[in-house]
Specification:
single chain, alpha/beta, Recoverin, domain 1, 4 domains, 6-stranded mixed β-sheet, 39% helix
Length: 607
C-alpha cells in the first residue's frame, strides 16, 4: 500500500443517507449549538489552523445526493483526505448501507494502492441508551481503511468536536502504516523503525533504556521531562503486560515496542507518530530525503571534511559499540554498529585504513574510514550519520558534522593549506610498487602483501584509496593515498586523476625503463601545475639500475626543481616519505624551499 505525504490542509467529507444528521453535525461544530432549522446541505467550511488541535487548516465538505450527482460525489471523494460516513444509531438500515453501499462506493473511487482513512460516525446517540459500537467491528475487520468508530450527537453536542478531531488525526497520524487492525499488532515497518530508534536512544549500547536515557528521549521528542512517578507507572504497565519488557528496572526493546502498540490501541497514534517523525520517518515509514540528505554544497576547489562535532559524535559511536572495551571493533561489533542502517557501507577495511593484525578496526582506523568517506562521498556519509542518530543526539542536521574547506586557490595564495585531509595520487607504471607503498603506509607487513592489479570501471584499470594519519609539524593530518591504475603507458590521465594536493610519482629503481614513464607524466601533467610532486624509487634495497632516459632521476629532479628522488625500501616500513608528502601538501608553494632547506627542516620534523 502506498501512503501519501502529510497534507498541509485536511479535507474532510461527510457521506451518508439522507436524514442521518451530516449537516447538523457540521453546524453544531461551527455554531456550538443545535438548530432545528437545518438546510439540505451546508456550504463548504474552512476552519483556520489556529483553532484546530493539530494546527492545520481544515476544510469540511457536506455531501447531499439530492443536490449532487454521483460524478460530483466521486470527485469529492478523490479530493478528500479523510471520509466520515455518518449513520443514525436509531435506524438499522442506515448502518446496513455502510457495508452494502457506502464503503464499496468509496473504494471504487479511490486509487487501488491508496485507501483513504474512513471514520464511521454513529449520530443521534441522544435517542438511545445503549452503545452500538460492538455492531460495527465486523465492518471494520472487512474494510481495513476504517480508522475508527465514534458515537456522537449533533443535538447535545456530545463528541462532535471529538469526531472532527479524530478525522484530522486519521490523516495526520494514520493508523494503517503503523498498525495492523486485523492482527492487532504493529506493522513490520513500524517495528523496524522503532528498533532503530531504540538503538539510537540506547546511549551506552547495553540493550536497555535506563531512566537517564528515557528522560533524554522524552525531552527531545516531546519537549517536556517525564515525571519519575509517571515513568514508574509506565514501567509497571509494561511489566504487567509483557514478559521481558523490563530488565534491571530498565525498558528493553521488547517493552519499548509493546508500549507503542499500547499507545495505538488506546487511540494515541499521535504519540508514536511524533516519535517517528522526530527520527525522520515519512508516511511510508521511510526516512525522508531531507532527513538523510540535507543540502550541503561543496563549491569547486573546495573539499568536505568532518567537523569537530562530527568527529566527537563518531568517537562516541565507536565507544558505544566497543562492548569489550579493547579499543577495537571486531566483526560482530561492527555489524552491530550498522544494524540500524540498510547495510554495512565498507568493504576490505584491511587495505583501506589502519587495523590490527586480525583486520579489526581501531579508533584511528574508524576515524580514518569516516574521514575518507566524507571526502569521497559526502551524500552517503550524511545518510549514514542520520541512520546512526546524529540528527537526534546532536539536535542538529548533518550539516554541522562537516566542514567545507576554502578554495584551494586561496590556499595557494596564502602559501599554506587550511585543510586537515590531503589527497595524494600514487602514479606509476604497472608493477612499480604502488600497491606496496599504500599497504606500507597502513603498516601491513611486506611478507603479507599479495600481488594484484586494478581494473578501471571502463575496463582498462581502476583506482583504490587508503588513508592514515601523519604528523605535520606536530599537528595530526589525514593523508589519502589514491592509487591511479594505468594499464598502458600510452593511456592519458583524466583530470580527476591529476587533480590532487600532492602527487607521488613512483618508478622501479631496479627496472631500467621505469623512470621514463613518470618523467613523461610529470612533464605532461605536472610541470606547469601548482601541485607539489615527490618522485619515489621503489625497491631501494635492490641494485639501483641506470635508467634508459635522457636524464637520470637526480638530474631530472634538479632540472625541474624537485626534491631529490626518494629511494624506498618497503621492508623497512619507514614513514618519512609519507611525512614529506603530507608536509608538501600542507605548504604547496614551498617546492623550491623544500630543496634548499629539506635537510635541516626534515631533521627537525623527524626528530
Amino acid at each position: 500500500m502506498v501512503y501519501e505525504a502529510i497534507p498541509r490542509t485536511v479535507r474532510i467529507i461527510l457521506l451518508g443517507e439522507s436524514g442521518v444528521g451530516k449537516t447538523s453535525l457540521i453546524l453544531s461544530l461551527v455554531t456550538e449549538e443545535f438548530t432545528d432549522h437545518v438546510p439540505p446541505k451546508a456550504e463548504e467550511i474552512t476552519i483556520p489552523a489556529d483553532v484546530t488541535p493539530e494546527q492545520v487548516p481544515t476544510n469540511i465538505v457536506d455531501i447531499c445526493l439530492t443536490e449532487q450527482t454521483i460524478e460530483q460525489v466521486a470527485e469529492e471523494i478523490e479530493k478528500a483526505h479523510v471520509i466520515c460516513i455518518v449513520f443514525s444509531v436509531d435506524k438499522q438500515d442506515t448502518l446496513d448501507k455502510i457495508s452494502s453501499y457506502w464503503l464499496p462506493f468509496v473504494r471504487e473511487h479511490c486509487p487501488e494502492d491508496y485507501r483513504k482513512p474512513v471514520i464511521l460516525v454513529g449520530n443521534k446517540i441522544d435517542l438511545i441508551d445503549y452503545s452500538i459500537i460492538d455492531n460495527i467491528w465486523d465492518i471494520a475487520e472487512e474494510y481495513p481503511e476504517v480508522d475508527r468508530c465514534i458515537e456522537c450527537s449533533a443535538k447535545t453536542l456530545t463528541n462532535v468536536s471529538e469526531m472532527f478531531y479524530n478525522a484530522q488525526k486519521a490523516v495526520l497520524h494514520p493508523i494503517h502504516p503503523i498498525y495492523s487492525i486485523e492482527e492487532q499488532e504493529l506493522s513490520e515497518r513500524c517495528k523496524k523503525a522503532l528498533s532503530r530508534i531504540f538503538k539510537v536512544c540506547d546511549l551506552d549500547g547495553d540493550g536497555l533504556l535506563d531512566d537517564y536515557e528515557i528522560s533524554i528521549f522524552q525531552k527531545k521528542c516531546f519537549d517536556t521531562p517525564l515525571q519519575l512517578q509517571v515513568l514508574d507507572e509506565v514501567k509497571s504497565v509494561i511489566a504487567q503486560n509483557i514478559a521481558g519488557g523490563i530488565e534491571n528496572e530498565c525498558i528493553t526493546m521488547k517493552g519499548f515496542i509493546f508500549l507503542h502498540c499500547l499507545f495505538i490501541q488506546r487511540g494515541r497514534n499521535e504519540t508514536t507518530w511524533t516519535v517517528l517523525r522526530k527520527f525522520g520517518y515519512d508516511e511510508s515509514l521511510e526516512l525522508t530525503q531531507t532527513y538523510l540528505y540535507p543540502n550541503i554544497k561543496v563549491p569547486a576547489g573546495c573539499s568536505s571534511e568532518l567537523s569537530y562535532k562530527g568527529q566527537q559524535f563518531l568517537t562516541q559511536v565507536f565507544e558505544k559499540y566497543d562492548r569489550d572495551k579493547d579499543g577495537m571493533l571486531n566483526p560482530t561489533e561492527l555489524k552491530n554498529v550498522f544494524s540500524c542502517c540498510p547495510r554495512v557501507p565498507w568493504h576490505n577495511l584491511r587495505y583501506t585504513v589502519p587495523t590490527n593484525e586480525k583486520g579489526y578496526l581501531t579508533l584511528q582506523g574508524w576515524m580514518c574510514r569516516w574521514t575518507l568517506m566524507a571526502l569521497m562521498d559526502l551524500q552517503s556519509t550524511s545518510a549514514y550519520l542520520a541512520y546512526l542518530g546524529y540528527n537526534f543526539l546532536e539536535n542538529d542536521t548533518q550539516k554541522s558534522a562537516f566542514h567545507i574547506t576554502r578554495d584551494k586557490k586561496v590556499d595557494l595564495a596564502k602559501k599554506q593549506s587550511s585543510r586537515n585531509v590531503y589527497q595524494c595520487h600514487i602514479i606509476g607504471p604497472r608493477a612499480c610498487g604502488k600497491t606496496s607503498i599504500c599497504r606500507s603506509f597502513l603498516g601491513i607487513a611486506h611478507k603479507r602483501l599479495k600481488a594484484h592489479t586494478h581494473e578501471r570501471s571502463d575496463g582498462s584499470g581502476s583506482d583504490s584509496s587508503c588513508i592514515s594519519t601523519v604528523l605535520v609539524y606536530g599537528q595530526e593530518k589525514y593523508l589519502v593515498l589514491r592509487e591511479i591504475g594505468i594499464s598502458r603507458v600510452s593511456d592519458p590521465l583524466r583530470p580527476h586523476e591529476v587533480n590532487c594536493d600532492v602527487a607521488c610519482l613512483v618508478y622501479d629503481a631496479a627496472a631500467s625503463r621505469s623512470f621514463e614513464y613518470i618523467a613523461r607524466i610529470y612533464i605532461k601533467y605536472f610541470a606547469e601545475s601548482h601541485i607539489p610532486v615527490l618522485i619515489v624509487g621503489t625497491k631501494g634495497d635492490a641494485l639501483v639500475t641506470r635508467q634508459e632516459y635522457i636524464l637520470q632521476p637526480e638530474v631530472f629532479c634538479s632540472k625541474y626543481q624537485l626534491l631529490a628522488p626518494q629511494l624506498l625500501n618497503i621492508r623497512e616500513n619507514k614513514h618519512d616519505v609519507f611525512i614529506k608528502l603530507a608536509t608538501m601538501a600542507a605548504f604547496p608553494q614551498f617546492q623550491a624551499a623544500w630543496i634548499l632547506f629539506s635537510k635541516h627542516r626534515l631533521v627537525m620534523l623527524l626528530s
